[in-house]
Amino acid sequence: MAVTRRAALRLLAASAAGTATGAGMYGYVYERHRLEVTRVSLPVAGLPRALDGLRVGFLTDVHHGPFVTQQDVGRAVARLNAERPDVIALGGDYVNWRDARYVGPCAEVLGSLRAAHGVFAVLGNHDEERATSAALRRHHIEVLRDDRTDLRIRGETLGIAGLRYWTRRVKEVSAAIGVSVAPALLVAHDPRRLKEASALGVSVVLSGHSHGGQVVLPVVGAIAAREFPVVSGLGRLEHTSIFVSRGVGTILIPYRLNCPPEVAVVTLVRRGNL
């Protein structure tokens, strides 16, 4: 019988709760706060020479709530701002279970993000669409809900498209991306959209949702994230490249093991330049 992501995390939570020392306490007290900055290069088919080296900051899966404080969110924002990315994308799941108490405070902290060519966001499965969109827009963050915007950077055009979590069919994804000869960067909360993006010839996908598995066991790996084509880091399907972030926060249990939180800087490079 297949083990669901939620069931796996609950099982791991029970194991962690039963371990008062060692890995159990490490994952709760230390590793879930050990925020890293991940820097990767992502090959992009058809990327204009002028955009070679463009740096995209990516922050996702904040899950602001009782276990991920405003200070935690602020630390992630400060780390990403210090990298001075050209563009910033936010990958969704700003709070837990659509908890309205945390939407405004989270959006306020994220409003401190700065990038020369703008900050763009999609929503995740934990986000109430209207309230979250409104809160982010109040802080000058553009929300892409099955929508696309084209940026003019260094004399060239780069499209940024964003999907709603529930948009899954190729026809729906195609409508969100639109028709353009310019390369497009697709922000999709769920990395399973890699399949549809590849079918449509999308150059780049940025995703979260998996938390990198949140708990990664030696030999066994990330039990709670096996349904995803890429659990964390870089991947590729045909001519489509993807980066999946481990995210900032946690879900179900305030615990990480062999899977620290991260913000990322993704450098776009012309394929063949790696």
In CATH, what is the homologous superfamily? Answer: GpdQ, catalytic alpha/beta sandwich domain
Largest beta-sheet characterization? 6 strands, mixed
Number of continuous helical runs:
7
CATH architecture designation: 4-Layer Sandwich
What structural category characterises the helix and strand content?
A: alpha/beta
Tell me, rounded to a whole number, the average pLDDT. 89
User: Strand arrangement, largest sheet?
Assistant: 1-12-2-3-4-5
End-to-end gap: 42 Å
Instruction: Give the oligomeric state of the chains in this entry, treating copies of one chain as homo and distinct chains as hetero.
Output: single chain
Overall, the morphology is globular
Overall CATH class = Alpha Beta
N-to-C order of helices and strands: HHEEHEHEHEEEHEHEEEE
Question: How many distinct domains?
Answer: 1
Strand content: 15-25%
Radius of gyration: 18 Å
- CATH topology, by name, is Purple Acid Phosphatase, chain A, domain 2
Identify low-pLDDT runs: 16-21
What is the number of E strands?
Answer: 12
Q: What fraction, in percent, of the residue positions are helical? A: 10-25%
